[in-house]
Amino acid sequence: MLEGYIELFELCIAMVTALLGLAYPLFIDKINQISDKYKTRRISEKFKNETAYCCFNILIVVCIVELFVFPIIIIAYDTDYCNQLLITIQGICVFTLSIIMVRLYHLIQTYNDPFRFFNRIRINETSENLIADLQILIRYASNNEAEMDLYNDAMQELSTQILNFQEEQLLIYQQQNSNNEEY
Q1: Stated pTM of the model
Q2: 78-95 core/surface letters (b: 16 or more CB in 10 A; e: else)
Q3: Which of 66, 90, 135, 176 is least enclosed by beta carbons within 10 angstroms?
Q4: For 120-167, how does the pLDDT look when each residue is reduced to its tens digit (9 = 90+)?
Q5: Which H or E element spans position 77?
Q6: How far apart are the first and last CA of the chain?
């Protein structure tokens, strides 16, 4: 019965090795290309703070630890239940790692495509981060004639964000004055 578990475990080892050997260097290279493309580390740092990237790094470590620890446990507790449990855990981790790797691939595509990145930050970012990211995109687009549409869209969004900020500040000022007049 142990032979079936060993085959599954060897499959998991091969998958983790392939993901670690192929995907991780690719992701690191692409993160560096993002920094070079936008000429700032801010965007690559934003990528490194993405949930999928953090989960990928954690799962890589978990899978590597499992590769070394699980064989020892399987040999020490040679029971069907233990073997089945450990191989199931390893399989789930490898499957999750594969799913996250696909998610990271899509995220890299989004960060490398300025229009997709613009749409992502416009939807997901708070106003402070959005303004900083918009400034980076405007600087990037202003240096590329082919990116004039991006430049115009980013400038329009930046103007909207500045107007919204000014309106918020005006409301705060008016509320403070009305509170002072009550006293």
Answers
A1: 0.76
A2: eeeeebeebbeebeebbe
A3: 176
A4: 988 887 777 888 888 898 989 888 888 889 899 989 988 888 888 888
A5: none
A6: 83
